Amino acid sequence: MGAIEKDGYTLYCTALFFNSEGRYLGKHRKVMPTSLERCIWGFGDGSTIPVYDTPIGKLGAAICWENRMPLYRTALYGKGVELYCAPTADGSKEWQSSMMHIAMEGGCFVLSACQFCQRKDFPAHVDHLFTDWYDDQHDEAIVSQGGSVIISPLGKVLAGPNFESEGLITADLDLGDIARAKLYFDVVGHYSKPDVFNLTVNEHPKKPVTFVSKTVKAEDGSESKEK
Asked: Which intervals hold domain CN hydrolase (predicted)?
């Protein structure tokens, strides 16, 4: 689930993970907001790049144009992602090509959800600037054209892309396709070249303030922490 997370006075573009019973598993904060998003959202760090082992497969996510970051994708591949979620606002045809490439590169199922919005979905306001896909700027005009899609590790489109309307797309996933795909290409396995290329991922949280405590010995010999 996509969300805008507030931490103190900073906003983050965040993907939230839940299990099939609705229990919260954790989150991923977008590590690199795109273009003018940097005026609004903070930057995530390596501490929230999870891949969760669930009963239906190993689940991870890359948000919007994080999917264009080869090293970020490689971090997810290195954690064994099988269900690669790609929530986005990019409704372009080129995005579909990226999703196809990632599915085959990572040997994983790609599930990309893209919002479908029309002018009428927004409050009326004279200062709104819309980037309509069409010139007829009326209430039914499409602002974000969707394109949700599910693609298999073998490069087969299993559902979508849906550019027509709001809707849910579903597909039956044969997890055996992961092994079939990686028999030929395993980007972090037999098709890697670690003697030439390698990636180091810093998973430590980057905090602006760190408090270091020291031990103080009292007259009675007891010890306490002083900040």
From this structure: 1-175
* Cα 179 from Cα 182, distance rounded (Å): 5
Q: Which residues contact 133 (CB under 8 A, 6 or more apart)?
A: 91, 141, 142, 143, 145
- pTM, two decimal places: 0.88
Please state, in angstroms and rounded to a whole number, the distance separating the CA atoms of residues 103 and 96: 11
Instruction: Report the CATH fold assignment for 2-184.
Output: Nitrilase/N-carbamoyl-D-aminoacid amidohydrolase (3.60.110)
Extended strands (E) in 94-196: 109-112, 116-118, 142-145, 148-151, 157-162
Tokens of 192: 């890697």
Q: Which residues lie below 8 Å from residue 76, measured CB to CB, with a gap of 6+?
A: 49, 51, 60, 62, 84, 106
CB 33 within 8 A of CB 69: no
Axis-axis angle for helices 93-106, 70-78 (nearest 10) = 40
Question: Which residue from 157, 41, 207, 74 is spatially nearest to 62, judged by alpha carbons?
Answer: 74
For 121-179, write each residue's pLDDT tens digit: 888 765 666 655 556 667 788 888 999 999 999 999 999 999 989 999 999 999 999 99
Q: Which of 110, 104, 120, 106 is nearest to 88 (CA)?
A: 110
Q: What is the mean pLDDT of the chain?
A: 91
Closest by CA to 73, choosing from 106, 44, 45, is: 106
Lowest mean pLDDT among 73-77, 101-105, 187-191, 215-219: 215-219
